[in-house]
Inverse folding.
């Protein structure tokens, strides 16, 4: 029997070898394939095992934090947004199954604490759990809240930028969403016709209307095509490419300079100025202001929109037969994002230099040590200091005596420009045809904040609807 | 000259074997201590001397058993008990690691079962000093075994888990009678085959080129086959049915040396299993899920798929003690269902990697090697067949459940011996250990006496 017992043992050894073979197959050889299986949720869950860093406002207000849910090794961190929809844009959301969006996505690396490949391997060896870093933003909670309050539920956007540094103080898009509800409501939010997941401030493309006259004026003055003293005859109506173009108030202004034209937003003046400047030069200045490219802000590229002249979904070049006279007054097929218009105001406020808009301020590790800090970066030299000063004077006149008086603040000199455009897709707005704008900055002599405010689908004007919002946000930042 | 030669050839003293056993227990206790300390550190980020006291407690219990073996079974195999203590220690650590997530005190229960198991071990050793009495009661034992197997289908106490009838419930106590039944069946078969093996071989006839045992002795063997089939139908568990029948075939082979009996038995089992596969829906589902788990990943295929995914996360070295996901994060729903019983091998591979899994398999292989060594050393046929049968059923049980979670065979609900959580499994396996050591003690004592006698006669 002994020989047979040994044979039986050999057979059992073979059976156990099969077990080793199968275990190796699943754990090593086929492991990558198994991890890629759609029904395998483990990789998703693992991503949520890292305690993501917090996102904070400039004053330390917590905008997003992670809390532990569950027990032991199966516990996970879940994102909480204490202020709900207030920071829905531009912070976005971060959840295991729904992924990351907006700021949560563009700063994902810091938030999950990935400094470098090397140090995470070191942490792994030391058995230390990866911990995310805190990211501070430049957002001023008061400005953000004020903007939301003043928009009062209307669709629109407010962008507030510190001109000298590009620091974004407020980036409000309405409608917004409560990121806490994303795990439950994402599909429903996607289908919502008011598009709450779409950030109006950075993704919304709207006809800028008369606010674009600032770009036309800047191009005319800075290129030397006109001087601050040049005058152009501005009748009540002119013929442009076979169609009449009229002033909003129907007045014949006669021979006027650029300051007066800006103060009263005279269409016939700027249409002729645009033609005098020409599409090539106008395009060159648009490029300098940041048009025809995505804003250089620290948000995901695919969640930013380009400003420019569009034929359908494609940008049109000067050679493609654009109507420069109508572009000059912010019409034709010109579309701009609110952040782009805020950059126009910030450039003029910053003596002609455009600073890259920046949301993040610094990164701190769990122990509170600053490990990275944003420094102001210039995006482009747009116009000369003199041109900027001349435009500032004209913009002060807009607020003091022109279309933008509703933006005036007591004790603070405000410079600005109003705009009222027709919404291209009237069906969306149900009888409220206007896109109201105000762009500006304050104080005019020492600008601390540049703001663009816009309201979609209103029957009001830029000067009546948007100007008070911009003024309120400026007041919130400047104080007093 | 002769005297010196006798001294040189003197066989090792029994105490030498016991000292090896004692020495082998120390690393086991150390492993348990370190394991508990690791789980502590992982769960609470602090070391506590509690893990040390658990280790000492474990060592003390093992030591007491060791002293008992020293007194009662001085010649028994020195490695079997430490190896079995090792599996229990690994099981305790893995189950302790699950306590936090399951919010239960499974490890404490398991430790209690371990102590009760050792007491039962001592009782069996005490009562069966002469285990050949088992032969006298073999039919009684066989009936007990069959009754135990049928118990889960009895009204009131029977309990169904995942469509299989494996457990009984007496108030708060749950019990898997199949664990005890396997020992009864092995005792019966060893005894029966010891008596009839000659007849089975001698009377064999060749029909159509196949050697068949004589018809009149075929009856009991057909009965065993019928029982295995009945188990498939009645308790609906492919795993335990396979385990019983494989142990049976192993014993037939060792007893008769006729491979053809094994082949016929296998063919009959497969034919029966195929028939049952086509008629019993629960068995059909189990096999279909084994063949293609992706057809129902959220429900029927969930357990086996999660087992594979967890092993994939483990890789070569594993994710570390208490660092793999057992629950769906943020909920109480299992990501690794039955991690403390069916899928404990998966949990080990997930946390200790392929190497950890190989270590477990190697431990079972070492136990099998020692068990078969006992069978080799035994003098009489009953002892040989008993040791072979007990070792085979133990090893095959390990194969059935590890094979189940690694998709070698359909996944079923048998426990991983001594590692899985469960009182009946622990108790049954300590009875099994007691029987093996009893056989071993007698075999080695007889070998020693024979050598002493030879040495004594020489001068």
């Amino acid at each position: 029997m002994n020989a047979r017992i040994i044979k039986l043992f050999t057979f059992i050894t073979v059976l156990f070898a099969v077990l080793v073979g199968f275990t190796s197959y699943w754990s090593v050889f086929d492991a990558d394939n198994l991890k890629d299986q759609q029904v395998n949720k483990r990789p998703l869950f693992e991503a949520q095992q890292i305690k993501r860093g917090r996102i904070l406002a400039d004053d330390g207000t917590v905008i997003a934090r992670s809390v532990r849910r569950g027990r032991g090794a199966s516990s996970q961190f879940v994102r909480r947004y204490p202020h709900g929809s207030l920071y829905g844009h531009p912070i976005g959301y971060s959840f295991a199954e729904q992924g990351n969006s907006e700021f949560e996505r563009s700063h994902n690396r810091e938030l999950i604490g990935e400094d470098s490949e090397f140090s995470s391997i070191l942490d792994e060896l030391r058995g230390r759990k990866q911990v995310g870093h805190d990211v501070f933003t430049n957002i001023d909670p008061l400005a953000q809240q004020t903007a939301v309050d003043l928009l009062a539920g209307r669709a629109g956007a407010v962008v507030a930028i510190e001109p000298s540094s590009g620091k974004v103080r407020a980036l409000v898009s309405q409608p917004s969403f409560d990121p806490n509800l994303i795990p439950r409501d994402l599909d429903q939010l996607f289908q919502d016709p008011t598009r709450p997941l779409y950030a109006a401030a950075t993704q919304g493309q709207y006809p800028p209307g008369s606010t674009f006259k600032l770009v036309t004026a800047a191009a005319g003055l800075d290129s030397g095509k006109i001087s601050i003293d040049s005058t152009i005859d501005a009748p009540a109506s002119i013929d442009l490419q076979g169609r009449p173009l009229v002033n909003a108030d129907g007045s014949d202004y006669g021979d006027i300079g650029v300051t007066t034209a800006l103060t009263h937003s005279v269409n016939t003046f700027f249409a002729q100025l645009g033609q005098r400047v020409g599409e090539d030069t106008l395009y060159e200045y648009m490029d300098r202001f940041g048009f025809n490219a995505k804003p250089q802000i620290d948000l995901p590229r695919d969640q930013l929109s380009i400003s420019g002249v569009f034929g359908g979904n494609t940008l049109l070049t000067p050679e493609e037969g654009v109507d420069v006279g109508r572009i000059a007054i912010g019409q034709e097929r010109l579309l701009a994002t609110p952040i782009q218009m805020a950059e126009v105001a910030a450039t003029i406020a910053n003596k002609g230099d455009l600073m890259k808009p920046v949301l993040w301020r610094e990164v701190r590790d769990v122990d509170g040590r600053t490990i990275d800090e944003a420094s102001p970066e210039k995006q482009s030299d747009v116009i000369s200091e003199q041109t900027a000063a001349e435009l500032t004077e004209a913009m002060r006149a807009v607020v003091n005596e022109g279309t933008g008086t509703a933006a005036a603040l007591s004790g603070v000199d405000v410079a600005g420009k109003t705009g009222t455009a027709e919404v291209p897709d009237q069906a969306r707005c149900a009888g409220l045809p206007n896109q109201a704008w105000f762009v500006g900055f304050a104080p005019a002599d020492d600008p601390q904040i540049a703001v663009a405010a816009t309201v979609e689908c209103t029957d009001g004007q830029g000067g009546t609807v948007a100007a008070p919002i911009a003024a309120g946000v400026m007041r919130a930042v400047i104080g007093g | 000259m002769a005297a010196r030669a006798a001294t040189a050839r003197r066989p090792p003293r029994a105490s030498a074997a016991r000292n090896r056993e004692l020495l082998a227990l120390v690393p086991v206790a150390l492993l348990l201590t370190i394991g508990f300390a690791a789980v502590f550190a992982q769960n609470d980020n602090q070391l506590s001397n509690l893990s040390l006291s658990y280790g000492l407690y474990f060592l003390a219990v093992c030591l007491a058993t060791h002293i008992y073996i020293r007194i009662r079974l001085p010649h028994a195999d020195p490695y079997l008990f430490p190896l079995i203590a090792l599996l229990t220690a690994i099981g305790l650590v893995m189950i302790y690691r699950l306590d936090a997530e399951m919010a239960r005190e499974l490890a404490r229960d398991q430790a209690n079962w371990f102590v009760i198991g050792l007491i039962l071990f001592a009782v069996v050793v005490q009562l069966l000093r002469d285990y050949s009495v088992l032969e006298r009661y073999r039919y009684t034992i066989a009936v007990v075994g069959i009754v135990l197997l049928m118990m889960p289908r009895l009204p009131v106490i029977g309990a169904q888990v995942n469509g299989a009838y494996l457990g009984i419930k007496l108030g708060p106590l749950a019990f898997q009678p199949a664990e005890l039944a396997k020992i009864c069946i092995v005792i019966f078969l060893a005894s029966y085959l010891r008596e009839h093996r000659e007849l089975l071989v001698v009377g064999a006839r060749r029909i159509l080129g196949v050697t068949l045992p004589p018809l009149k002795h075929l009856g009991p063997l057909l009965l065993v086959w019928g029982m295995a089939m009945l188990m498939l139908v009645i308790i609906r568990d492919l795993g335990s049915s396979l385990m019983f029948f494989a142990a049976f075939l192993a014993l037939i082979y060792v007893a008769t040396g006729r491979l053809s009996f094994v082949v016929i038995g296998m063919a009959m089992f497969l034919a029966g299993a195929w028939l049952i596969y086509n008629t019993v829906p629960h068995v059909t589902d189990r096999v279909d899920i084994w063949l293609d788990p992706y057809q129902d990943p959220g429900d029927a295929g969930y357990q086996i798929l999660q087992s594979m995914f967890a092993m994939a996360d483990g890789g070569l070295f594993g994710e570390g003690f208490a660092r793999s996901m057992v629950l769906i994060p943020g909920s109480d729903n299992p990501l690794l269902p039955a991690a403390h019983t069916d899928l404990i091998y998966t949990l080990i591979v997930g946390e200790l990697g392929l190497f950890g899994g190989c270590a477990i398999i190697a431990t079972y292989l070492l136990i099998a090697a020692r068990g078969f060594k006992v069978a080799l050393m035994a003098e009489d046929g009953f002892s040989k067949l008993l040791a072979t049968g007990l070792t085979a059923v133990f090893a095959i049980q390990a194969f059935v459940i590890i094979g189940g979670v690694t998709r070698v065979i359909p996944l079923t609900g048998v426990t991983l011996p001594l590692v899985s959580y469960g009182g009946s499994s622990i108790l049954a396996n300590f009875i099994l250990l007691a029987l093996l050591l009893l056989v071993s003690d007698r075999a080695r004592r007889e070998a020693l006496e024979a050598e002493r006698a030879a040495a004594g006669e020489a001068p």
In short: Chain B touches chain A through 62 residues (CB under 8 Å). Residues 1-10 of chain B have pLDDT under 50 and may be disordered.
